[in-house]
Write a structure and sequence with these properties.
The structure is a single chain. With 158 residues, the protein is α/β, with parallel strands linked by helices. The chain is 40% helix and 26% strand. It is built from three helices and seven strands, in the order βααββββαββ. The strands form two sheets. It has a five-stranded mixed sheet with strand order 5-4-3-7-6. The radius of gyration is 21 Å and the shape is elongated.
Length: 158
């Protein structure tokens, strides 16, 4: 099985989520199930069925995260060679050539990508276009809405 890359920060976020699920969410749903059981007939008890559904979600999420943590290669970005090129884990500041809009992205593994937080997957079109490039270079990115042109303003190893 191919191991995907993940930043150490992404792994830490997942570990924190598992800790919360196990120490807060799981005990709360177990308590809710016990309270719902105390109300009697379970066949028509909506609170019981909702709590059981929530329990299934929590257990599934714990299993999924633990699988990801066990099957991803965790990379400490701070230990990567600082060669001035865009690579996995770096943070890149870009300026669009069409309107001067500035955006910042960190290139991360598929399992931790979240565009709202500026985390883009290494397999995304923009990351693939940026890999290996240096500050000052202009990059054409094939996006769903057409080609976008960006200049690489800064590369940071955070």
């Amino acid at each position: 099985m191919k191991r995907n890359a993940m930043t150490s920060q992404g792994a830490e976020r997942l570990r924190a989520e598992v800790k919360k699920l196990k120490s807060i969410d799981r005990p709360a749903v177990i308590k809710a199930i016990a309270e719902a059981r105390a109300h009697g007939d379970l066949s028509e008890n909506a609170e019981y069925h909702a709590a059981r559904e929530q329990q299934g979600f929590i257990e599934g999420r714990i299993n999924e995260i633990e699988f990801r943590l066990g099957h991803n290669e965790i990379i400490d970005v701070s230990k990567l060679p600082r060669n001035g090129k865009v690579m996995f884990g770096v943070t890149v500041d870009l300026v669009s050539e069409d309107g001067g809009t500035q955006v910042t992205y960190q290139i991360v593994g598929d399992d931790e990508a979240d565009i709202r937080q500026g985390l883009i997957a290494i397999t995304s079109p923009i990351a693939r276009a940026l890999i290996g490039k240096e500050e000052g270079e202009v990059v054409d990115v094939q996006a769903p809405g057409g080609v976008r042109v960006y200049e690489i303003v800064a590369i940071r190893y955070e």
